[in-house]
């Protein structure tokens, strides 16, 4: 079986079973190779037949990005976002809270490392755009600061 066929087969099995994370480990003579992989699905595009002056169909995203009024603090990496330092603890920030530059707003776990996401400006938290424990993509808006 080719490498491509193996990956496609594993991907289908993982999708069928709902598996989103994979830990790989391979021993070599000179050491051990370890890799943690977090999978996320891409949002599908839907074609909405709307007419324009040229009567050509226009492609629209099924999940349009929410309109953001204010400054959007974005994730610098792919990972899992946590809004509190530990389960059951108070959230780092709440809607309406005054924050300052340097305040921790969330944690993004990537490759088993918790990375603090800090505000880079003063303001008031207007909206929290992600839920605790959700997978986030690079450059995804997390919090709106006004």
Whole-number average pLDDT? 78
Strand content: 35-45%
Largest β-sheet summary: 4 strands, antiparallel
* Overall morphology: elongated
Order of helices and strands: HEEEEEEEEEEEE
Total of helices: 1
Strands side by side in the biggest sheet = 5-12-10-7
Task: Kindly name the structural category.
Answer: mainly beta
**Low-confidence spans:** 42-64
The total of beta strands comes to 12
Helix percent reads: 10-25%
**How many whole angstroms does the radius of gyration measure?**
20 Å
Q: Give the CA-CA distance, first to last residue.
A: 55 Å
List keywords for this structure.
single chain; 146 residues; mainly beta; four-stranded antiparallel sheet; 1 helix; 12 strands; elongated
Short description:
The protein is mainly beta and 146 residues long. The chain contains 1 helix and 12 strands. It has one helix spanning 3-17; strands at 21-28, 31-38, 45-48, 58-61, 71-74, 79-82, 98-99, 104-110, 113-118, 123-128, 135-136, 141-145.
């Amino acid at each position: 079986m080719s490498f491509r066929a193996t990956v496609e087969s594993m991907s289908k099995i993982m999708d069928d079973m709902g598996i989103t994370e994979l830990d790989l480990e391979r021993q070599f003579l000179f050491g051990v190779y370890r890799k943690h992989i977090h999978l996320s699905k891409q949002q599908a595009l839907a074609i909405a037949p709307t007419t324009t002056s040229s009567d050509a169909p226009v492609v629209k995203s099924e999940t349009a990005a929410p309109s953001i009024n204010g400054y959007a603090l974005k994730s610098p990496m792919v990972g899992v976002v946590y809004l509190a330092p530990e389960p059951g603890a108070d959230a780092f920030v709440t809607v309406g809270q005054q924050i300052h530059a340097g305040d921790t707003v969330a944690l993004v776990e990537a490759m088993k490392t918790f990375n603090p996401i800090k505000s880079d400006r003063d303001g008031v938290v207007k909206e929290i755009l992600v839920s605790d424990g959700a997978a986030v993509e690079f450059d995804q808006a997390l919090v709106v600061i006004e």
